[in-house]
Amino acid sequence: MKQPIRFVALGDSFTEGVGDNDLRLPNNCRGWADRVAEELARHDPATRYSNLAIRGRRLQRIINEQIEPALAMQPTVVTFYAGGNDLLMARLNLARLMQDYEQAVRRIKASGATVVLFTGYNVPLSPLLEPLKLRTAIYNRHIRRIAAAYGTLLVDYWCFEKFQDPRMWSPDRLHMSRPGHCYMAKKVLEVLGAPHNLTSPAFPPPRSRTFTKNIADDVAWLKRDVGPWLSRRVRGVSSGDRLGARWPELMPVVLPEKLGTAKARPQESSRFS
């Protein structure tokens, strides 16, 4: 008899679901991992799901806080995205980061679970941050090597042309929007070879933007998102410090049609991490 799916998602804001706002859910967000779990549960109601990801987490905290609880759940599927927040740091030992990442993957893979890894994406933040592309490219090269070496599945979303459309990103320019999360869920399910009913987002042609409008948007972004993020970095705090895991234990999947009416709750800022 085929055993039920036990899906555990590990990582940071990418996996927590920041950018896909839903006031009915823990931490006021939904995200691609929830959407993957929902599709798995629609085809197999015995599916169980846990999401341990917390925004702002760097690789070492994800390793220290999430891997052991995840393995204790005896998962059959584990998604692992980590290192994105490390790439944003001013000082970074990238070789050491990837060594720690590889050790984490080795540990998860040894559990016997199907492991899904992700490359990073060149998020169109600002021309001032173009040097980050080199770090991301090196990071991705290592991810692909590790995925091949350990026989994991890989969602190589560096290559997804859909994410060139700014409407796939939230206003903070760092996290995916709801359409971005929906598309990511579709691609994860495809990599898993799982049946689903998700479709690709269809946008109308983009409106033309003037140079003045682009400058005004950049100024607003710097004030609204970059300033508070830099302030947290200086103070050594993260937007996820007051948050816990959204779904800390394996549980039946909560389908959206079963949720009640949205009610606003206080929430830490989702801007950056």
Give the key terms.
disordered C terminus; 8 helices; 273 residues; alpha/beta
Please identify the structural class as seen in this structure. alpha/beta
Helix content: 40-55%
Please tell me how large the radius of gyration is: 18 Å
Going across the major beta sheet, what is the strand order?
5-4-3-1-2-6
Number of helices: 8
Note down, in words, how this protein is organized:
The chain has helices spanning 13-16, 31-43, 59-72, 84-87, 94-109, 132-150, 178-192, 211-235, and strands spanning 6-10, 48-51, 77-80, 114-118, 153-155, 247-252. The chain has 273 residues and is α/β, with parallel strands linked by helices. The chain has a 6-stranded mixed β-sheet with strand order 5-4-3-1-2-6, with helices on both faces. Helix 2 crosses helix 7 (178-192), helix 3 (59-72) runs parallel beside helix 5 (94-109) and helix 5 packs parallel to helix 6. The N and C termini lie far apart (43 Å). The relative contact order is 0.20.
Topology (elements, then pairings):
Blueprint: E1 6-10, H1 13-16, H2 31-43, E2 48-51, H3 59-72, E3 77-80, H4 84-87, H5 94-109, E4 114-118, H6 132-150, E5 153-155, H7 178-192, H8 211-235, E6 247-252
Parallel strand pairs: 1-2, 1-3, 3-4, 4-5
Antiparallel strand pairs: 2-6
